[in-house]
Amino acid sequence: MTRIVAGTVGGRTLQVPPRGTRPTSERVREAIFSRLEHLGVVDDAHVLDLYAGSGALGLEAASRGAADVTLVDSARVAADVARRNVAALGLSGVRVVAQPAETFVAGVAAEAAQRAALGGADGTPTGRAGRGPYHLVLVDPPYDVTAEALERVLAHLAVPGVLDPAAVVVVERSTRTPEPTWPSGWELVAHKDYGETAVYFVGPELPDET
Predict the structure, then answer these.
(1) Distances (CA, A) of 102 to 81, 109, 154, 180
(2) What is the pLDDT of residues 112-151, one digit of tens each?
(3) Do residues 180 and 140 make contact, with C-beta atoms less than 8 angstroms apart?
(4) Is the whole model's pTM more than 0.85, yes or no?
């Protein structure tokens, strides 16, 4: 059984797709959000949940005060389950997109590049819900997603204007695979292993204030 850990709908159960997904355990989710709340990036955040499955990670963010959440999964069965979870929980500001993660972020990156060409690359909102800039991105791909595919997704996220300058990106991978290659200009904030799950907290390097 999968449940929301805390927040306005804490304790509520979630449906999960019958196959093809690997839900993040409650223990790992609780640890992830404990750190994120310590970093101050959940409340009132614009959140993107890639490879969302049931939507557990993104819905956890919504329950804990995120302004809006976009759940993205390529499997229509998973997207349908996520929509049912959104409806059952009654959380506002959550939308579900049935699309491959790479395709979705490539589109967001293209829009950000277009804004930059027009002189609006400083994180100006797009006027389209869920299209960035994002304060928090949750990336929990199936273990069979290759390192190269993940690297492409991260590269799209690194396009200026996709992320807020102080954004945090959480990436889950198997502990049996190497640490992902991070885009130029990103830094590793923290790394923690939970059983076979490795969790990385990364984001754009903040300029020195000195």
Answers:
(1) 21, 10, 9, 16
(2) 999 888 875 554 554 455 577 999 999 999 888 999 999 9
(3) no
(4) yes
